[in-house]
Amino acid sequence: MKSPLLKLVSPLLVGSLLLVATGCGPREEPQATTPTGSSGAPQSPATPSSTDPTSAEPSMSATSPVPTAPVPSTEPSTEAQRAARLAAQMSSREQAGQLVMAGVEATGATKATLKSLTKAGVANVFLRGRSKLSVKQTSAVTGQLRSALSANSPEGLDAWVATDQEGGYVRVLQGSGFSDLPTAVTQAKWSTQRLDSTWRSVAKELQKAGVNVNLAPVADVVDPALGSANAPIGYFARNYGSSLKSVTESIRTVNQALSAQGVQPVVKHFPGLGNVRENTDTTASVTDTATSGDSESLRPFVQAIEQGQAWVMVANARYTRIDKKNDAPFSRALIQGLLREKLGYDGVVISDDLCEAKQVASVPVGERAVRFIDAGGTLPLCVDADKSRTMINALTKQADADEQFAQRLEDAVTVALTAKLETGKE
């Protein structure tokens, strides 16, 4: 990635940069494209499966060593310097608004919601739910959002407008003009050429619709022994086959295709949901006791870091071999230690939904955002627009009371703004 390492944006470095210059998926349950019941729960796929019969590669071991990604250059880019300057000029409330990604209905936000988000300083949104609007109609929705939030970003930088367009049961935008993507399990059986061309078409659709961030592809490697018993991924066939080779090659192609058309890809859910049975969206205390910082299942994420095109979404589960006491989004050992320092990732880290997920429900809403930023995260995702304001208030209050946290908040804003500046440059 081109963004600066978080550890570079220390108080001393920010000062020097200023002298030189004077960054789910989400709560929405995967739903079938066919009608669902009144509860909104997804219809069960007819033949859920996570196996990849075309792959002859042996199944991965959860404890085999994974290579450490190369450490990026420590020399800050011009964009990083400019981002640090902009971040330092903001109040803590303005900084918080740059980070919280608020969920709005994909069919359009109400006037009251738009007014509320604008007043709160929100600069990034996530299109949630399911929409039958066409590409053109969706473009009108995103245009309205951008217009409302334009005053909240410095120097005319564009808002991030994200959605979940994986394919299969996780496809927010389903109206005319949007591709009817099959599940990732099906996509993994295609040739590289077909996968690339299909995703380039999907990216063009998203770009025309005004969406510049797609929370895809899924990089989770589902344990073949679990298969469809893996509720968050395998049950809905969200995984690109069941081998490391299939997953790694597929997400590399998808990342390249999205990025080439100006849509930001996001690999998820670090460090992987392939070894759990329950879904963190609907269940609490989901725990992975197999994955470690050296597991082979990290390889898809490592190659994505090396590829340098995708952001990373952190899962909500707890990984006891990495941090026994904290769920992943609240674990500094996992985000700052493993992802950033060991694996060398210096870009945007986005959370899975922190507002409606049962896994984190025992933690007060505002505290969830504070703990995520404190752990080294960048964008706390909140699919509930009202609760997103609670997060902004909590981040502001904590930064005003805690100098160390205030610096971490500013570091996160620098990473986020660097990503926006680099996108604008391209």
What does this structure look like?
- This protein is an alpha/beta fold and 426 residues long.
- It starts with 10 loop residues before the first helix and ends with a helix.
- It has helices at residues 11-21, 78-89, 92-99, 111-120, 135-149, 184-187, 192-208, 244-260, 299-307, 332-342, 365-374, 385-401, 403-425, and strands at residues 101-105, 124-128, 160-163, 165-167, 170-171, 213-214, 264-270, 287-288, 311-314, 318-319, 349-351, 381-382.
- The longest helix is centred in the last third of the chain and has 23 residues, at 403-425.
- The protein is globular, with a radius of gyration of 20 Å.
Question: What is the molecular shape?
Answer: globular
Largest sheet: 8 strands, parallel
Helical amount:
25-40%
Number of helices: 13
Q: How large is the radius of gyration?
A: 20 Å
String of helices and strands: HHHEHEHEEEHHEHEEHEEHEHEHH
Uncertain residue ranges: 1-44, 46-64
**Strand arrangement across the biggest beta sheet:** 11-9-7-6-3-2-1-12
Residue-averaged pLDDT, rounded? 87
Class from secondary-structure proportions: alpha/beta
β-sheet strand percentage: 5-15%
How many β-strand stretches? 12
Cα end-to-end separation: 14 Å
Could you give a short description of this structure?
Helix content is 38%, strand content 10%. By secondary structure, it is α/β, with parallel strands linked by helices. A hairpin with a 2-residue loop joins strand 4 and strand 5.
